[in-house]
Amino acid sequence: MTPQEAIDMYEPVMPSPYIFRREALRTYILAGRGAITARSEISRKRYTFKFSRPAHKLGGKQALFVRLVTGPDGETTFIGTIWPDGRFAADRKRGTFQAKAAFAWLWQQARLDGGNLPSNVAVWHEGSCGLCGRALTVPESIESGFGPVCQARMMKAGV
Q: In a 10 Å sphere around its CB, with 0-12 CB exposed, 13-18 middle and 19+ buried, how is residue 44 labelled?
């Protein structure tokens, strides 16, 4: 046995929190309580977005708020809304143009059917369940982005 094989034998293999497939990204975002970081592999610029649902329906519809993480302590700035028809409406006054454009592009990629995200962008979730927001600790949950209870709820709902 080589030294590297001995190390590999005892090192835990953690699942990747990276999101590669469009439908996985779309599902995670629409779950409504997660956070993702997206980074351009070309410019190395990155943005972290958090998602939340309002306490009440807006215009009789359940919207999804998108916030940009702007500080080291998790401060956020509202940048727009994803409406039930799938449309992203950027806030006209808050957030930088670049951050809103980056999310709009990422959301457009997530809405496309099938396949992987472009190789020039890396996206990963922040280790919390996309549906309830709790920290993920089980390797299978880290890989999927959803805890076991929430995953069962989503499967029952047909998501």
A: exposed
